[in-house]
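Quick start: what a row looks like.
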Amino acid sequence: MFSRLLTPKWVALHLLVAVLFVATFFLGYWQLSKAEDGGGAVNWSYALQWPLYGFMGLWFYVRMVREELRRDPDEDEPGNALVLYQRPRIDTTGDPELAAYNAYLAELNEKALGQRGSGGR
């Protein structure tokens, strides 16, 4: 289960988060030293904000790791989420007005799919 978190991508991400978490405290300390040397209210606020940013980033990262552990590992398999478009069947039996309206809607659908496929909206 935890082996998914030991792939090269995840190990690099673990290291990056650790470095950034520590860096926010160094930045907070730097702002605190500037504030104590006569800096203004901005330096005092940054001295508090940098560690807050570190904890916020860590909190989001823990949530991301939890989501990865809950995720089904087979959902990345090709073809699992494949949905083929099925053209709507036009009912030509029964009411001729309804059949004409369904044909009109099918034509609009074809135009919309043609525009989407060519990059226009």
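That is the whole record. The mean pLDDT is 82. The chain is about 65% helix and 0% strand.
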